[in-house]
Amino acid sequence: MPQIQLGGIDYAILVVYFIFVLGIGWALRRFVRSSEDFFLSGRSIPTWIAGLAFLSANLGAQEVIGMAASGAKYGMMTSHFYWIGAIPAMVFVGLFMMPFYYGSRARSVPEYLRLRFDEKTRGLNAITFAAMTVLSSGISMYALAKLLELVLGWNFHASVLVSAAIVLVYIFLGGLTSAIYNEVVQFFLIVLGFLPLVLLGLRDLGGWSGLSAQLEPVATSAGYPAGAWSESWRHLGSAEANPMGVEWFGLVMGLGFVLSFGYWCTDFLVVQRAMAAESMTAARRTPLLAAVPKMLFPLLVIVPGMIAIALHHSRGGLLPIGADGTPNYNLAVPVLLAHYLPSGLLGLGLTALMASFMSGMAGNVTAFNTVWTYDIYQSYIKPGRSDRHYLRMGHAATVFGILLSVVAAYAATRFNNIMDMLQLVFAFVNAPLFATFLLGMFWRRTTGHGAFFGLLIGTLAAAAHHGLTLPHGAEPGIKGAFLGAALHVYPSEMAQNFWTAIVAWTSCFVATVVISLATTRDKTDEELRGLVYSLTPRITDHELVWYKRPAALGIAVLALTLVLNIVFW
Amino acid sequence: MKLDLRLPIGLMFSIIGALLAVFGFASDPAIYQRSLGINVNLWWGLVLLVFGLVMLWLVRRGTARS
After folding, report:
1. According to the model, what pLDDT value does residue A347 have?
2. Buried (b) or exposed (e) across A13-42, using 16+ Cβ within 10 A?
3. Which residue, A18, A364, A514, B14, is most buried by CB atoms nearer than 10 A?
4. Chain B within 8 Å of A207 (Cβ-Cβ)?
């Protein structure tokens, strides 16, 4: 593809954004006095800010680019990541889990695991989580720098170092507050930067109906029913009828239940934003408020991919073709930016892309420095020091967390396979996690041994399932069947992932129950107060106006999501 | 609140909006061929400017109240 030429106005917008991002860090530096200020924003963030940050931390460049790529590759079915995946999980974490996270005064998700279970369960979660955040921010840095090199001709090293340095400076200065405040700025920038692209694309193709009509030949030429790219549920009866290669049960259980609840309910990266909220009600409303814009995001991140593939098909060769003969879906967003936006808005769109990258990276870094300092350093390396000591450690962890990410980004350029393998291992570790939290929060009989060994068994089950199955057309190896035999061949990688998650969750659930019943209880009811549902006083919201109550908000969010599912059925 | 976040958001979008609107006003109409003939810089710049000014107005109202 021809490289995009930027003008002075484009660079001016980028520079204005950089100045504000750094300025916010600078303005907030004097509010950081204790480690609680640095890692938890002193638990003083209002709901709307926490809610938008909750959303934005997850809205990394990989999400923006990846969801558009999936929109091009699978069409409207990608909306399931939002409407059956994220939203119900966000409502659940707000209504049912936040009371324990926020109410227990735990400073991190691993710390909750120590309070609820024991030291070894916390250690396992803390170490895998810390390693995962650093690596994933490195991998997304690599992906972004590669993309900028390809579409703008920017120097790979300069992109990596400049973006890492900016994130480093603003977190170092203002800690979590700075990350959260910037995430809100980034949220608005991402929305206002990508919206003109979507509006122009839809106008060009004749609105939603025009887009759907243009997607019909895309579907029929690939051998699927005409509506396969513009309808979300209609083709889920069998795995062969849709491009994702999954049937409804694997999708609802694997993606909707296990993967989405696992991510939104247990990943400290997002939960940390709600933990920083100013009160219990604010913490519970954080994910609920975030769910409202989240349910509209398919318009912003999936529809561009659909527009790109429609244009690619009807007007010929918009997307560059890769070595394997398929279009390079990851370029959907940059190609569309160059196709529709003139100098000026082009700069805004690229700034939005940079903003999404930085919000994702800052989310990883703040989660890393907290888990490292509280759950690893304070717990196992140097316990019992002064708060000042841990605050200094937090600053240091921010620096070496980012340095490690940069190292990971460079490692990704040279050892792509090792990076893929590590991500696979982390996927195995994460898949069963939600079973542990669900049992821990709702069944007081769950023991520390049950949780720890249940997690290990769930992880091994995930590895075993992946190692004995293969997606259609893949070579044995990292894609599966590394245990020697492919006992089952899935129609797609997506289907294999969903079923790996289902197997991991079920194994962990069963193993945790069995081991818990076989071991003696290690915590009394008194110790579990505030950590388990049946032993925690119900929160009453009667003093709030009905529309401000979390339960009412949650029901409204679910009802709206149901409407969206039906409209785009 | 430590720092009224609406202030930097309002300032930043006002500046970017004004930059885009002025650029859109002054730029060669030929560059808008790709954006379906619409001067998107001018129009979207004005949208951002209004958004930024509303944020700044909320800050003013907030400080006046407290």
Report:
1. 93
2. bbebbbebbbebbebbeebbeebbbbbbbb
3. A364
4. no
Residue with tokens 């990076």: A419
Do you know the residue count of chain B?
66
- Chain A residues with CB under 8 Å of B19 CB are 9, 12-13, 16
Distance, CA of A549 to CA of A545 (rounded, Å): 7
Q: Which amino acid is at A441?
A: M
* Cα separation values, A8 from A355, A444, A462, B32, Å: 19, 62, 51, 17
Residues of chain A by 3-state class (helix, strand, coil), percent to 5: 75, 0, 20
CA-to-CA distance for A437 and A404, rounded, in angstroms?
A: 29
Under an 8 A CB cutoff, do B3 and A27 touch? yes
CB distance B3–A339 less than 8 Å?
no
Residue A95 CA to residue A306 CA, distance in Å, equals 34
Residue B59, class by beta-carbon neighbours within 10 Å (0-12 exposed, 13-18 middle, 19+ buried)? middle
- One-letter amino acid for residue B33 of the chain: Q
Nearest CA-CA partner of A146 in A156, A137, A136, A138: A156
Q: How far apart are CA A323 and CA A430, in angstroms?
A: 32
A338 CA: distance to closest CA in chain B (Å): 9
Length of chain A as a residue count:
569
CATH class of A8-414+538-567: mainly alpha
Q: What percent of chain A has pLDDT over 90?
A: 53
A131-178 confidence digits (pLDDT tens): 989 988 888 888 888 888 888 888 889 888 988 999 999 999 999 999
Does the distance separating the beta carbons of B35 and A342 come in below 8 Å? yes
Size of interface A-B (CB pairs under 8 A): 85
Q: Is the dihedral of CA A458, A461, A463, A469 positive or negative?
A: negative
A169 burial (CB, 10 Å; 0-12 / 13-18 / 19+) is middle
Distance CA A16, CA A347 (A): 11
Residue B1 has pLDDT above 60, yes or no: no
Question: Tell me: the pLDDT tens digits for B13-66?
Answer: 999 999 999 999 998 888 898 889 899 999 999 999 999 999 999 998 877 766
> How far, CA to CA in Å, does A72 sit from each of A3, A166, A243, A331?
21, 32, 11, 10
Instruction: Establish if A13 touches chain B: CB-CB under 8 angstroms.
Output: yes
Give the global pTM.
Answer: 0.92
User: Which of chain A's residues have a Cβ under 8 Å away from the Cβ of B41?
Assistant: 342, 344-345
Inter-chain residue contact B35 with A341, CB threshold 8 Å:
yes
* Sequence spans of domains, chain A: 8-414+538-567, 420-537
Tokens coding A39: 């890692």
A-chain residues near B20 (CB < 8 A): 9, 13, 344-345, 348
Q: 3-state DSSP call for residue A471?
A: strand
Is it the case that residue A33 has pLDDT exceeding 80? yes
The tens digit of pLDDT for each residue in A190-245 reads 999 999 999 999 999 999 999 999 999 888 888 888 888 988 888 888 888 888 88
